[in-house]
């Protein structure tokens, strides 16, 4: 039987690609990641050309959080592994659970340490896999949910690797005691009000006592479900590509002509490829009846968690819910980038660039600023014969409704000069400057 260190090394070696430069360990300080830190230290000695680092995310949810961070720092010094701490900011008033917020924040902060083909190492083990499958059963998940966690999965341009997925927790604990390792205990892990803790402390021990190999069986079942999911994606790939547009929207009419089973499968893949949680059967039915089949003159919108499904010009769009910005405005200085709110990018009036809309330089007495609210504004595009309400121009320029309040409007005094990357107004075009909107997405 392979040792813990051998299991770790074999999985890492099988996951490396030619230009992998860095291994990043998600280090909470609990038993599992503490053992993985020890394995990583051994692996580093055998592979000195690879950079290794451990990243601890401080969530601030426990009075012991500072102590855990300092313990992780100390253990990394002893293991000669570079240590980094990241601090999560959570909203206790959010409708989203703190557990879900913490998970999202953790992975977002970890991603900052990864480049293309690097490996992110997390310490889930066979007991965690069984817990995940049982929770999927509780939710009524299909094969994708029952596929649970894979030993390897893509993570942006990097790879998320779980080297301990074939090992039981008791094997990790035995290794830790053998190596005289210390670890921290999160007091919330004992609270059986949480479903995962209830399974961990009350259900899985009973299942393991009756069926000692149940973790290995769960891993095989998860792998089989994962293979079936891959097969379905391969078989339906041509059909998926036929309804997928270049802007990542889906052709609504084409989707509506498919069978319910195929349509739902393609919609689930669409959500997954855009990194949104999988919609349930009820939500999929609502997408069909309330969005795809809505009347042609409607502007349907279905909110599913943090994302909404919208239809515009016979296409479906996934739109991440964002805060409205109607009252935001900011002055602009020439040749200075101005950051926009809500991750909408930045705008700049440049005297040196040839990218963007051509505008004249502002006059000394003109106030130069940018805003989002189109309400009450009138504009006269340079190529048009007359002016119209900006609301009507958004329609003519085929700007989707949800983007109209997220499109920066350049103003000189109280006059519209340029709108996003769509048009310049008459009287304000020129060759000396460019108004450039750099979008983050």
Description:
- The chain has 441 residues and is α+β, with helices and mostly antiparallel strands.
- It has 3 domains: 4-220, Rossmann fold; 245-320, Up-down Bundle (Chorismate Mutase Domain, subunit A); 329-438, no CATH class.
- Helices cover 39% and strands 20% of the residues.
- The protein is built from 15 helices and 21 strands.
- The strands form 5 sheets. A 6-stranded mixed beta sheet has the order 3-2-1-4-6-5, sandwiched between helices. Strands 11-15-18-19-20 form a 5-stranded antiparallel beta sheet, with no helix packed on it. Strands 7-10-9-8 form a 4-stranded antiparallel beta sheet.
- Helix 1 (4-15) packs across helix 2 (31-46), helix 2 packs across helix 7 and helix 5 (126-139) crosses helix 9 (214-235).
Oligomer: single chain
Q: In this structure, how is the largest beta sheet organized?
A: 6 strands, mixed
Indicate the structural class: alpha+beta
What sort of overall outline do the alpha carbons produce when their principal axes are compared? Answer: globular
Q: Count the helices. How many?
A: 15
Strand order of the largest sheet: 3-2-1-4-6-5
Instruction: Write down how many β-strands occur, each being a DSSP E stretch of 2 or more residues.
Output: 21
The radius of gyration over CA amounts to: 27 Å
Count of all domains: 3
Distance between the termini: 48 Å
CATH class of the largest domain: Alpha Beta
The percent of residues in helical segments reads 25-40%
CATH superfamily of the largest domain: HUPs
* Named CATH topology of the largest domain: Rossmann fold
């Amino acid at each position: 039987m392979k040792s813990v260190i051998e299991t770790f090394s074999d999985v890492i070696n099988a996951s490396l690609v030619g230009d992998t430069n860095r291994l990043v360990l998600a280090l909470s300080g609990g038993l599992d990641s503490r053992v993985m830190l020890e394995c990583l230290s051994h692996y580093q000695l055998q592979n000195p050309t690879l950079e290794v680092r451990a990243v601890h995310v401080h969530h601030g949810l426990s009075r012991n959080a500072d102590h855990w961070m300092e313990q992780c720092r100390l253990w990394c010094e002893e293991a000669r592994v570079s240590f980094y701490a990241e601090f999560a900011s959570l909203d206790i008033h959010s409708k989203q659970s703190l557990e879900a917020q913490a998970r999202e924040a953790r992975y977002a902060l970890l991603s900052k340490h990864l480049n293309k083909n690097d490996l992110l190492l997390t310490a889930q083990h066979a007991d965690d896999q069984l817990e995940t499958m049982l929770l999927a059963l509780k939710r009524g998940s299909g094969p994708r949910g029952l596929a649970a966690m894979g030993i390897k999965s893509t993570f942006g341009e990097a790879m998320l690797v779980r080297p301990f997925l074939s090992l039981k927790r008791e094997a990790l604990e035995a290794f830790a005691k053998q190596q005289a390792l210390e670890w921290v205990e999160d007091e919330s892990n004992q609270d059986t009000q949480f479903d995962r803790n209830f399974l961990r402390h009350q259900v899985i021990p009973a299942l393991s006592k009756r069926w000692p190999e149940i973790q290995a069986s769960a891993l095989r079942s998860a792998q089989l479900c994962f293979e079936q999911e891959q097969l379905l994606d391969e078989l339906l790939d041509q059909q998926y590509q036929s309804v997928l547009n270049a802007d990542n929207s889906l052709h609504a009419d084409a989707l509506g002509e498919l069978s319910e089973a195929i349509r739902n499968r393609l919609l689930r893949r669409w959500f997954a490829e855009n990194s949104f949680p999988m919609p349930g059967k009820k939500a999929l039915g609502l997408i069909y009846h309330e969005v795809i089949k809505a009347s042609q003159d409607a502007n349907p919108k279905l909110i599913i968690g943090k994302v909404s499904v919208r239809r515009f010009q016979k296409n479906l769009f996934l739109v991440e819910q964002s805060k409205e910005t109607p009252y935001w405005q900011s002055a602009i200085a020439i040749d200075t980038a101005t950051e926009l709110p809500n991750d909408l990018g930045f705008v700049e009036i440049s005297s040196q660039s040839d990218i963007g809309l051509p505008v004249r330089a502002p006059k000394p007495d003109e106030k130069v600023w940018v805003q989002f609210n189109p309400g009450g504004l009138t504009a006269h595009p340079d190529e048009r014969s007359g002016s119209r309400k900006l609301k009507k121009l958004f329609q003519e320029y085929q700007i989707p409704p949800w983007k109209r309040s997220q499109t920066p409007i350049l103003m000189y005094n109280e006059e519209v000069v340029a709108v996003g990357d769509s048009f310049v107004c008459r009287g304000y075009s020129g060759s000396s400057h460019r108004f450039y909107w750099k979008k983050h997405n």
